[in-house]
Amino acid sequence: MQVLLPLAPDQVVTHGDYSLDNLLMVDGEVAGCIDAGRVGIADRYQDLAIAWNCLGEFGGALQDRFLRQYGVATPDRRKLHFHLMLDELF
Predict the structure, then answer these.
(1) SS3 for the chain, per residue?
(2) Would you name the residues annotated as active-site residues?
(3) CATH number of the domain encompassing residue 16
(4) Domain that holds residue 22
(5) pLDDT average, residue stretch 54-65
(6) Count of the separate structural domains present in the chain
(7) What is the mean pLDDT of residues 25-41?
């Protein structure tokens, strides 16, 4: 089935719905995640896109900082948008 994907996958273990609503914060640090019903193997951009999208309400600078801190200096915008559209199906 992977041959049908429009983008080359970079598979890792993902949360599946890594949004701000599903993060537990303590003193400004992520202390845990809840709602792990969609955990599995997927492209890392599945989680990155959801978190990146949630951070958009705080501005593009925070979105960029999030990706840089993760280690993505040059984000793949096609993958971000593909995974956001894919998430709409859930």
Answers:
(1) CHHHCCCCCCEEEECCCCCHHHEEEECCEEEEECCCCCCEEEECHHHHHHHHHHHHHHCHHHHHHHHHHHCCCCCCHHHHHHHHHHHCCC
(2) 17
(3) 3.90.1200.10
(4) 8-87
(5) 96
(6) 1
(7) 93
